[in-house]
Amino acid sequence: MHAGIIFFLVILGSILFHIFxxxxxxxxxxxxxxxDDTITLTFWVGGGVFIAVCxxxxxxxxxxxxxxxxxxxxxxxxKKLEKILTVATTxxxxxxxxxxxxxxxxxxxxxxxxxxxxxxxxxxGWQYRLPGEDGKLGTTKxxxxxDDNPFGINMDDPFGRDDVMVQSDIINLExxxxxxxxxRSVDVLHNWYVPQFRAKMDAVPGVVTxxxxxxxxxxxxxxxxxxxxxxxxYAMRGGVEVQDPNSYQEWLGEQExxxxxxxMQNKEIETKKGxxx
Amino acid sequence: xxxxxxxxxxxxQAQSSEAITGSAGSTSPDIDxxxxxxxxxxxxxxxxxxxxxxxxxxxxxxxxxxxxxxxxFTGIVGLILSWLMRLQLGFPGLAGFITxxxxxxxxxxxxxxxxxxxLTALFLGGFGNYLIPLMVGARDxxxxxxxxxxxWMFFVAVVILMAxxxxxxxxxxxxxxxxxxxxxxEGTPGSGMGILLMxxxxxxxxxxxxxxxxxxxxxxLQARTxxxxxxxxxxxxxxxxxxxxxxxxxxxxxxxSAIMMTLDKVIGTSFFMPTILKAGxxxxxxxxxxxxxxxxxxxxxxxxVYIVALPAFGIVSDLISVHARKNIFGYRMMVWAIVGxxxxxxxxxxxxxxxxxxxxxxxxxxxTTTLIIAVPTAMKVYNWILTLWxxxxxxxxxxxxxxxxxxxxxxxxITGIFLGNVSVDVPLSDTYFVVAHFHMVMGIAPVMVxxxxxxxxxxxxxxxxxxETLGKWHFWTTFLGAYSIYFPMHYLGFIxxxxxxxxxxxxPYMTSAVGMNEFISLAAFLVGAAQFFLIFNVIKTLxxxxxxxxxxxxxxxxxxxxxxxxxxxxNFGERLPVVHRWPYDFSVPGAKDDxxxxxxxxxxxxxxxxEKT
Amino acid sequence: MxxxxxxxxxxxxxxxxxxxxxxxxxQTMFKGVHWGKAMMWIFLVSDTFVFSCFLIAYMKGRGSTPxxxxxxxxxxxxxxxxxxxxxxxxxxxxxxxxxxSGTMALAVKYGYEKNRKMCGWLILxxxxxxxxxxxxxxxxxxxxxHEGVRPxxxxxxxxxxxxxxxxxxxxxGTHVSIGVIFLFIYxxxxxxxxxxxxxxxxxxxxxxxxxxxxxxxxxxxxxVDLVWVFIFAFFYxx
Amino acid sequence: xxxxxxxxxxEKKTExxxxxxxxxxxxxxxxxxxSFFSYMVDWYQFQGMLRWSLILFFMFLKAGLIMAFFMHLFxxxxxxxxxxxxxxxxIACFIFLMAAEFQxxxxxxxxxxxxxxxx
Lengths: 277, 613, 238, 119
Prior knowledge:
The complex is a heterotetramer.
Chain A: H1 2-20, H2 33-63, H3 79-108, E1 115-122, E2 125-130, E3 164-166, E4 170-174, E5 179-185, E6 190-193, E7 202-203, E8 209-213, E9 219-225, E10 237-243, H4 245-254, E11 256-257, H5 258-276
Parallel strand pairs in A: 1-5, 4-10
Antiparallel strand pairs in A: 1-2, 2-3, 3-11, 5-8, 6-7, 6-9, 9-10
Helix pairs in contact in A: 1-2, 2-3
Chain B: H1 17-20, H2 50-55, H3 60-90, H4 100-136, H5 144-163, H6 193-222, H7 235-266, E1 277-278, E2 281-282, H8 290-323, H9 331-344, H10 362-388, H11 397-420, H12 422-428, H13 432-462, E3 464-465, H14 468-495, H15 508-544, E4 546-547
Chain D: H1 2-18, H2 21-43, H3 48-70, H4 78-85, H5 88-113
């Protein structure tokens, strides 16, 4: 008897915990509300099944606990009941799957008007690159990376020259403008993850991966690395600042481009030469 | 012929005339007819010395216990590691010796030990060896010598694994998934000897397991006793058998990835290694694909989940049926669900990789296949609780563990639907939601079954009944503790706390989660400590415990109907049993007792309404 | 075994109906199949997965490298009378392995006919074929190493070429070598008459020897040949 | 003991009658011929789909012959054949998906790492 009561209290406790929990997801700051909605839907359906199954079990424990000589039902199979349960479960699962697939379809199809951002990760830090006036990012190679070319841009790529370089772990984004995050790693796996944006994807060395979102709330957010990348994993943080279009443009204008960098370096070399003379 | 062999006249291929006119041959009435044995009796090697009897023993039951004890030993190591991890997470800085390197080594070793060396070895090596021959009515496994080699291979694998704690650099700290390039790069803890020993140990485990797995499969397929059809096997055997099939087909992928990674590490090939810039220098790797490793690993890794889960499903079905005094509901459905889940598990592996950067279109395929698996799994859950319905449920320790299993398994299964559904997985993957999910569904739930199975079969193995009061204390502390570890942990995942964080650093997540982390750690210490109830119980029982009567639970399956209890080598004495029915004839209307052993011939049960045989 | 065995009290139905009734029957699922033979088959399925994983990894590796893959037709060419003949050595190796597979098949046949002499000599012939194959592979390896092909790089193109080549052929060669060792052992056992007169108990087993063991050995050997068919197609011809 | 001899005698007879040496020699010869053909695929340097389909065709034919006759699967009961062939669907699925994966990886690499590689 006490067993049933304790199990019941466990279920009740779980429900109460869910209702009164102070720990729940952060306020969403991107377009992926659909993900939250699917989670909520799954929560209701799944939670309902969980509670129903457990309550049924507890009822059985109360009702049918051992009594000498109790009459027990002997019915090895019940085709009809099994069929009903199968069909109902299949329908339920399909109902959960459908929104999941629809949203995934949005997730892998990036809107045309999105701005591409090259997020480069290493142990343990981030830096960012935005396309310049041509709207295209230059191609890159890991072997090109050095102090003069921190992003490893291919020097013969015409699209690379005007790329805007943000050598900081904080990136600014324009509010209500979709961004396509292009992830790149130079050493191990990383994952550029902002909980408020919901979306994430691994950065894999040797390929470029992508995902997109549309920030829709102005503010500052913390970037976490969400794929284990060595002992510094927990400390690998970055930042995002979502700004309204005007301040964003202002910020963008302050950033240096790849050609700026090259020009500066050439000047440096010249002054060095000058000193020697 | 050596005198160590049973005096057995016939060779293997022959049809022994003795066996043909066995027990239920010509004298019994026609309805009891079971066709004669196809194969002659198996020759067994009977050990005489201590070494051949208890160390290099060829008796599957002894090998099973050896597997069990070795696996439990590694499990205790895993448990201690989890304590250390929780110490760091709940109370960062309290134990000063736990550095980030140590923490990640603990994480890695805990994961690998628990999944492969504890759960897999315990279910298949331990329960599989002990129960398969007994339950299908065989004298022993079909290849006892290979079976013995299998255990010792496993033993060596465990020794090598444990040795990695003591080599320079310590064990590998790359996470139990061993994702390259991380795993073999300088700077990762244990990237020298540690990872090599891990890979060697895994390869040995695979080889050893293949030897054992062949035994389990052929014993089930080719060495059942007379009358034992596949559809009369206890679900325990079905679960272990299907898991073995999965293991035989999934472990090759692990072996291959281990070989390839060893080559990458030792001789500098670039299977998994692209061009890498490390500390300002470009390493001599290039062109490899880290995602390939992930595919290979999860092609093994997902079936591995079911290698752990399916035996648990099988065993819990038997325990529920016996202790609810009622036939398992929908036996046929249960069998097909086990087989179906097993088959489907080879088509879902990349649901672990939705955010890994693989071809994004795979998401559609894998989400669909993954959620299809939910259907047979749900059917199993329904059938368990429908077995309780209108039963006569003994609320003893064994049943409590089963009920605990149902609660935790359904909980973990439902969160699995979150994670399997591709776009829901995106915000939740790599967070504590995942940690909570898989601990609930393949950590706690199978362990509940293991505990139930220990209380259930302990009298068979030792002849003594474990103490019920201690057992109940053990159950409630473990169940309530474990539930309060992992249920709240899901909510950390909702906040977005990533997994594998040594500490939360100075993040906003720190402040909101700190209280819960402390609570979870305390609960974890409690659950670990609660296992002393079991250890104490076992020691006490072995010394002064109540002697178990024969077939104490009044079960039907063959392992309780051996000539002696505990069964001796050869299991069934003079004559092998002849099976006439399925193992779930409990509380049949019209029968004298509330159970009908599988060996009872129909002629003795003519007045009962037996529906299924 | 070829023809259906006789099982007391059980009707062996042909075709798919037989499959259903065999599966649904008690005691054994594979009627008349020796335990060891069933074990070998299951092991071979498992081993198939090993080689499949290797070849799938090779496909993925080769397909995704942006560096040019060396042309196997040229890399494996051999000078015969001053003319480079593409894949000459590989063709010879294939020839040798298929020959040994044929002798093995005949050895199994003569084993079942209890023709000890023929069986033994054919196994020996198979072993020598296997040995020749291994020898040719050693030659192939040393030639490639001489030309500068290494597991971590080669002068012809993508570094993965050498990695996959040495790994896959090495793993296959290991299988062949193990097979050769067992072929010699079993040739000895056949000549020594371990399978005659009820059979002698072997090592590793408490079962008595029987000519079915030759078939089991044969299964393994044919499997090695089978794998070579796939390696030949995917590695040398692609 | 008598039984043993009887059965093996019977076996011997059936073995002999259904497996004439001819069938092995035939298959053996066919394997040589097919190997020769697949070698010719390379010799004549066929390219593209033709090469692929010829390679695969000869490969599967050879594999099928070895399995069916040398490994006796043709004569085995379907229960065994069935069990052996089902697992291959998992491999087929793996191959299919990895083929899609390597193309995706290749295109990604060309697009992002090589100037003008997208074309």
